[in-house]
């Protein structure tokens, strides 16, 4: 069972913050996944965002493509149809919208720029922006817990990596209208490539995580988010904290809504191992789903992220690079 952690004291700075940090640390060493309760995100905001998201995905393809990712150019924001995002080279059975920090257009820097919003849904923009703001605050609080869980100062990640974090937010819809084909997945087995993922899932279920004893369901629990750590934190901790493979298959017979929020280091931050002195790097590439080492990368987080996103959207990547 994935642990459920009450983080109220972490948000409020109460005396038992150390206990919460220890629970987070234990989860990161064990399954790499944990639920959080008393997270401070208003339920009314979540409900409104889900309502607007379903309204958007119910539109016809032409209307949705008015905010196609190609229109955002190198900012890589906007809508993509089912089958255009790849996991391990295979098309995912989902559609979605990419958002990030609201930034002015940048002439050369990828993953920087304004978000795209549907013109005929005036409520969508302010609700998404409010959600991004509150989730960013939550991300900072959880990173404090992660810092403390590693025996570091609570502000370590803030001071070195996440004072100005790279924020990616996605709204995914897994259509339930067509029968599930054996061997196909909404999202195939993978690990997240960043530091921290905070996921709000609807009540359809379908998320599974790989444990030592096989695949384990991570069902939706009312009032919670599901959190997991990614490859970059695995690398930064020398493998003390493990990024855990997971996958999604929608067998509910109806559309499944998923809202993953990714909280990562600044685009220009040079990512290095944390000062926690592991005895040795705990390499596990032979057991990983992709047979690749998470410890081999050297450089900035932006360089790392671009390499990952280019594999997820190869056609978009080729089109953007062709314009340079």
Task: Note down, in words, how this protein is organized.
- It is a single chain.
- The chain is an alpha+beta fold.
- The chain has a single domain, classed as Sandwich (Jelly Rolls).
- Helices cover 30% and strands 20% of the residues.
- It contains nine helices and 14 strands.
- It has helices at 8-12, 17-30, 43-57, 61-64, 124-149, 156-162, 231-236, 301-312, 314-322; strands at residues 4-6, 33-37, 78-80, 86-87, 90-91, 95-100, 166-174, 187-190, 196-201, 207-211, 214-217, 225-229, 246-248, 256-264.
- Strands 1-2-12-9-14-7-6-3 form an eight-stranded mixed sheet.
- Helix 3 (43-57) packs across helix 5 (124-149) and helix 5 crosses helix 6 (156-162).
- It starts with a strand and ends with a helix.
- The model has no long low-confidence stretch (mean pLDDT 90).
What CATH calls the topology is Jelly Rolls
Seen as an oligomer or otherwise, the chain set is single chain
Number of helices: 9
Structural class per helix/strand content? alpha+beta
The CATH architecture assignment turns out to be Sandwich
Major sheet description = 8 strands, mixed
Mean pLDDT, as a whole number? Answer: 90
Spans where pLDDT lies below 50 across 5 or more residues: none
In angstroms, what separates the terminal alpha carbons?
Answer: 49 Å
Specify the overall morphology.
globular
Strand order of the largest sheet: 1-2-12-9-14-7-6-3
Q: What is the name of the CATH superfamily?
A: B-lactam Antibiotic, Isopenicillin N Synthase, Chain
Query: How many beta-strand elements?
Result: 14
Q: How big is the Rg? A: 19 Å
- CATH class group: Mainly Beta
Helix-strand string = EHHEHHEEEEHHEEEEEEHEEHH
Give the fraction of residues assigned to helices: 25-40%
